[in-house]
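Hey, quick one: can you model this chain's 3D structure?
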Amino acid sequence: MSSSDVKVEETKPVNEKEVIPPKNVILKESGGWDTLGRLSTLKRNLKTLSAHTSRKPVDDIKDKNEPSRFLGEGVSYKAKLIGILEVSDPRGDRMCQEALSDLKMAIRAAGEHKQRITINIAIDGLRLRDDKTGDCLYHHPVHKISFIAQDMSDSRAFGYIFGSPDTGHRFFGIKTDKAASQVVISMRDLFQVVFELKKKEIEMAKQHIEQHQIKYGMGIYGDTSKTPSDSVAASSKLRPITEDSGKDNTSKSSSAPPEVVLKEEADLEPN
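Sure thing. Here's the predicted structure for all 271 residues.
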């Protein structure tokens, strides 16, 4: 595993008519994920995307490739929170492995039990909830998750880096009830779905601009002071998704999209 990427297996495209980035490519848009549309529109497009997959033969559809599973509370996993550690960089496999080791040693030295949590993986990000009360401990929007690493010494442990250059980065170490690769793959699938929806947002915005340009050319609108580039910028702004650290507080979104490199599933399975 490289020191800068987390890799998981390549899955089938959810929409065969759209071009899906091949494996070993970084999911990145040049304009930044915070300029590609509103969350409400993404959810509407998610339903459309799900409808396309439902038209395929039943044998070709797998639950893990169904985009609608990320609606609402999304996909849930039982786990324990190992700990949280400040890190210096937004990505790095060796750094994550060391952070996991440090967190494990710290909790053993303290003689404390790991907090039981439920991981909700949904279209608006990850939520870590207290398993007993159901209270949201942390809410992490997708665009601020920059790296995911599976523990090389424990098939049931993984962690991810969350943050931004302005607020700093923190590593969240998690111990899963089942294989950690299941959670990692679900997170990767979520990133892929969000990528497809945002790409659809760009296409819709371009169509909207073209329609307005046609109307301007026909003289329907008298005010042509705004340039096409101004219209693109105005129509492609994304309302920041709220970040929660115990409460659902709104924070300023980062312009850096999450980077995920696809890898064969065999590299995620325990040795």
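One thing worth noting: The chain has two domains: 33-199+237-267, 204-234.
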